[in-house]
Every structure is written in C-alpha cells, then in structure tokens.
Amino acid sequence: MEETGVAGEARSSLIRRIETTSDLFDVGDERISVSFIVPAFNAEDSLPETIASIRAEAPSGSEVIVVDDGSTDGTVETARTLADQVLVRPCQGGAARARNDGSQVARGEVLVFVDSDVIVSPGAIPGLLARIEEGADAVFGAYEPMVDADIRNGPTTYKNLLHHYTHLQGAGEASTFWSGFGGVRRDAFAAVGGFDPAVTTAADIEDIHLGYRLKKAGFRIVLDPSLRVRHRKRYTVGGLIASDIFHRAIPWTRAMLELGFFRNDLNLSSGSIAASLLTYLVVAAAASTVLVGWPAAVVAVLGGGTWWALNAGFLGYVRRHWGAKGMMVAAAFHALYYLYSPLGAALGVVAYLLRHDHRPFLNRLELEPSQPGDDAEVTVAVIWTPDDPATLPDLFEERPGVELLVVGERRPEGMPRWARYLPASPGATRNELRDLALAEARGGMLALLDAQHAPRDGWLDRVVAAARRADLAVGGSFGHDRSGMLRRAYQVARFWQWRPERRPGWVVEHPGTNLAVRTAVIRALGGFREEGALMLRLAGFGARPVRFDPEMEVRLTGSVGLRQLTRGLAGIGRLRAAASVRYYDVSRSARAAAVAISPAWAFAGLYYLIRSAVRERTADLSFWAALPLAVLGAAAYWLGRNVGTIWAGDRGGVVPWTEADIARLAAERLDRR
Asked: What span, in angstroms and rounded, lies between the C-alpha atoms of 337 and 369?
C-alpha cells in the first residue's frame, strides 16, 4: 500500500537521499548513514566509556557528535579527544536543545541519540539499525535489568528494574520514544520539528513528547527491549520521588493534554491506574482500623492481596533478578510510587489548566555566532547613582582589550584615568544608565557593576574567560558582608542564592550587577529597560541562560538603610513579577494561584537559606543576629511580588518586548527550523 501524508512524504524523501548519498555504509540490503548524538553535562567521568561502547559496534562511516550543555568540569576537553564533532552551547538549554543542536550538524540519515550516562550493550546498535532497515521510522530500546554493583542501592535498582519491565510489557509498536538509546530517521525527525525544547528545562519527557508527535504524524515507532544499555545514574529516595513527580508525572500529563494524545501503554496502563487506586484504598483501610476495627482490617488484607496480584508479574520479575529480599524492597517502593504518582498527575492537570493556552518562546531561539568587538573584547560599565558612595571602589589596572566606562549624573571621585565617563540625565534609573553604557560599548561582552560593589582580585579574569568562551551570560557572586547587621541582612535577603559558597553552574536569573552578557545579544533584545525583563528574554536562548561563576566575586561597599531593605526589595519583587506576568501573558487564575502559594514558596526559601548556611558553615553569629531583619526583607520582597503579580499593568513594570515581538524575531532572525 502506498503511504501518504507527512510520514509517506518524509520516507520517500529519505529513500531519494539514500540513493544519491555517497557517505554510506551497509546494513543488510539497504545502505544508510548514521550519526550518534550524545548530549553531555558534567560527564567527564562517564563519557569515555559511553563513546567507547558506541565505537565498538558503530558501522564504518558513522560519526559521533557530543553536544556539551555548559559543563563545569572537563567534559569538553574529554569529548574533543573522543568524538568526531564537539558542539559547546553558550548557555544551558537542556538535553532536548542539545540533541537538536547535534542534529543540525549531523550528516547521517539516521540519528541515534545516546545519553552520556549509559553504556551501549553488545548487539544493540546493529539491532536498532536492523529495525529501521525493516521499515520503522523510530526505534528505541531499554536499560539492562540490573545496574552495576558500584551504584546499586534500593531506589536505583528498583527504578532500573521498573523501567526495563515496563519496556518489556510495551514491546512492539509504540506511541512514544526514549532518547536514552533511540534512533529516528532524519526526515521523520525534521518533519515534526525535532525535540521541543520548551517542554522541559532539564531532561524529562521531551522524548515522550517527540514520540507522540511522530505517532500523530503517521510515523511508525518500534520498542525493542532487547536493545539494551547500562544506566550509570544513582538515585536517592528523595531524588527518585522528585524525578517521578516533577520530571515525569507533571510534564507528561501536560503533554498529553496539550497534544490531545492518550494511550493505554507503558506507565499509563489501566492496570497501573487500578493499582494506584487500590493502594490508596489499602492505606485508608489500614489507617482506619483503630476506629472501625476488624472490618477495616479485612478490607486492608483483601485489598493488599488484590494489589499483590495486580503487580505479581512485576514483583516476580524483580525476584528473578534481585531475589526475595529485593522483591520486598521493590514492593515498598512500588506502593510509594502508586501513592505519589496521582499527585503528580493532578498537578500536571492544574499546570495545563493554568497555562495550556500559552506557548512561550522559552528556549526556542537560536544564537547567532559571537562577534568580537572592534576595539575591545570586554567592556566594563560601572553604574553610578547619587545613592552610591561618592568615591568609586578600587577596580583594576588598565589592560589591553578591556575598556572601562563610568556612567552617572556627574563624574564620581576616584575614577581611573583610563576610564571613559558617560554623563546621564538627572534622575536616570539604573537601567537607563545601563542602556547608555550599552549604546557606547565596544566590547563583545558587556560587564556591569553597580558602584556600590567592588570586584575582588581576579574578577576581570573571569569576565575575560567568559568572553573567550563565548558564553551568553555569566553572573558572579556577592561576598558576605559582616560589617553591620543591616548590611548582613541585606546581603542575605538580596543575594543569598548567588553566594560564593554555591557551586558553579547555570541559573535562571541574576541581578543586573556583577553580570556580563554578550553585547550584540542585549542590543538585539532591546536593552535593559525594565527590571527582570532581560532574564526573561535571555530564557529564549536557554533553559538556564546565565553561567554562575562563584569566583567572579564582588563585595558591598556602600551603606544600607532600612528603607533599602524593605521598600527597595519590595520594588525589585514587584517589577520582576510584573515583568513575568506581562511577558508570559499570565491568566488571572494563574496569577491568583501564584499569590495563594507564595507563602509556601517563601517558607521553602527560608528553609533552604538556613539549611545551606548551616551546611556551608556560614551560619556564624552575624548570620543569626541578622536573620530576623533578613526575614523582614524577604517578606517585603514577596509582598512586592504579589503586588506585581496582581497589578502587573497598573503598578508593575512595563515590558516593551511582547510575545508577538519574540515571534517576529524568531521568524526573521533566529528560529530557522
């Protein structure tokens, strides 16, 4: 029968390409080319064995592409010694974005995605290619049943066995996809637009989302659990629960509702749903035995027996691989799984109802190649207002390739002789001063410092390193200030999440000071203009657009008053929240929900603050003494956030870059898929 529609057109195109391509190799009677795409983040230790396992059975003529997603270890250097191509992303976009980037440079007609924490088992690659040769458009495998002994614990072993058993039960024609080890024909992948990077900020269900779209477009997907890989990820109990709720249940539920695509397979079988309901019944009956007595106990026993019968296949499978003791451990984890999974699904429904009609351009924009400045590779702009100290703090010595701008209403004292002064209009805001610096900057990277922050030794070296790496943005840390209770409280309330003790990594937001961003990108985004808007716009280029470098440290030099701690932080919260509401076009119901749960988020933030201070041993006497004032500042910030969330148009900030502007920019300049 002749195929029609998207799938038929894509397969016909693929056949024409196969017939005219010279860089091919044999797989059975059909000749196809293959690109192996490995997204990697801090995979220095696991990457060599992953690539070696690919090379062991990859056909001649294939290629291995590693896409680094902003690693902070030696992943890039390791990859360059092992892979055929290495792409380094300018900011962290998540695994979906990394895989898409790899597919853009791939030469193969078949794209095989392999996670950097798996080791491909013998026979898996030839088997995958054979399934595609037989007519499948996409093929994926499964994990080996048991994890390696060195990472084996209860939650890890249970998770791995559940994954393999689920794939065993779903073998054959499938409606989903798995990118841990999965291959797809290039034309099928392109026909549905590849992975959707806006689905996730990390790595969760972007592959399931791809599979649903492939199936809806008429492509054929095959699950073959005999194609196996060894997974090298170790879970904790908390990590397992968080992963299942926030990286599986919530986004998976949203994906099904948004795509209108529902299938009774894998984790969504009717048996799994029944077992989940039965788990709640057993728990409720057991809890009520104190009040009801033996009738509740009978219900609990009968329900428990029925529950065991429903899960007998999985538990028997676990016993064969992990023994009787392991089976009991798996039964406990499985019951827990059935308890929290409906919660994740319910939260997914809520998330869909609040945001289903809005598809922002988060993580969808492409970066143009970095262009170095004409006269300098870095421009440092010191923003000075009348509220800042009269004398500038010590900065750094003159250096080739670096220009220094000082922007303010009048020339401050202590300005270095080699700096260039830019006069501003009276009453100009900090963001207006930043825009003035942006207009005059000649460097490829613009670094911003408020005059109340003095850079530590080596600060400029970190900025220059970011410019040479071609990072999208890099933000530094704010050192502890113990010279006064108000100053300490302000540092804790305002800058705690960017403290020097925090590990290097990627963050969603950062203050507008001690921040360096590509000059051309800021100009393309319309400048600074409004507090909080720049970070939202940068999120179009990556899920976490700012590299956090704790060694790029500054210290507070100006004075801090109670007004700055309260009204100042409230104003920051109000403007950021208003910018988010307008940028995302958040509905009234979603705004009401955000305000309702804000106390919970505030208490969670306070818990995180205290816990991290204790663990990092920065909870000294000055910390505890200033904590009540810091809580007051945090409360003012959250009050401002709620005001900005509710009255975004009247009392919040105005974001001049709307979703329509983003769509036009994506269509004209950046999003060329």
From this structure: 45
